[in-house]
């Protein structure tokens, strides 16, 4: 008899995908480029993640107006439809037609399809069809109830959360590790004590949307259910992981969620052009696996994961979200794994027109532009909160600000728990 321990078989899981998700394209120059999704899907496929018998594919439906109205104002939905039909930025209300959210002919349907994908993922998880699901095209966390913002039209995360509540979930945790504050999702559930929104992000003092401070703790009837850790610019893996671990598991244990919905924007990477954090691919991979572990420990294994921001579509996004997909599917890819040659060959064919956004991302020789392994040989060690609090450390100052505001509301000691 073999004495070698064997990893438990992965539980049923799903990936939301269809090429129609690539239609969410504001313009040729906009940083929210569908290339991010295409290269991620190609890398997921190249590693054979979708071939495992426990994995199913969810084809994302277009969310109906009635479904979108679970979290969005009907007048706003109608305005998005009208703007799509007119395909013009002129007189477009509700935050539409801006530099961040320009109008394009497929605006409504493309946005509603992303929302429908995360909605379908949530339904599959709650029904027990799968235990975990990922829609890396989702994560549109800036969209508010009646306003487009920050490249986001319909808030798929909020839609999934509301659907879970309607289906019978008593408590849902939304966990956001994007570089930017998850302001839209927080605002939609700010007065709902059944939903805890947790966002760890670069401080709004230096970064859009300028919100997400420690004293934003929820409305009068939901005190303690909005949680924000605003870390300083240039925070790296060690600081960010310390912040997450010093706040999140303690609150998860106390809140006892039925399901976790997470947003994994990878714009906290040191090579992302739109934020000022210093995370690595390895650090963001660690976050995905940590959240998966917490779903098992605190939410009976129920986990709905989404993508989000991330604007280095060649070197960063595909690797981070392939690791995220692998975490959801419980089929981890080592950081030293070589990227399949088929993906590298495809990356070599990309033209300057296809590589939209900040062209400085693609300067240098091929070895600098096109990654060949799944990690960056980064040190993801982080100092546990139990080791002690350094009052001179700006990250620790941010952590303590949040713990002081939130922990007493949950019967926790801000210094020791």
TrEMBL record:
Keywords: Acetoin catabolism. The keyword Nucleus does not apply. Residues 30-327 form the Histone deacetylase domain. InterPro entries: AcuC (IPR003085), HDACs (IPR000286), His_deacetylse_dom (IPR023801), His_deacetylse_dom_sf (IPR037138), Ureohydrolase_dom_sf (IPR023696). GO terms for biological process: acetoin catabolic process; epigenetic regulation of gene expression. The keyword Ligase does not apply. It comes from the Bacteria. Gene3D superfamilies: Histone deacetylase domain. Pathway: Ketone degradation; acetoin degradation. One of its GO terms (molecular function) is histone deacetylase activity. Belongs to the histone deacetylase family. This is Acetoin utilization protein AcuC. It comes from Micrococcus endophyticus.
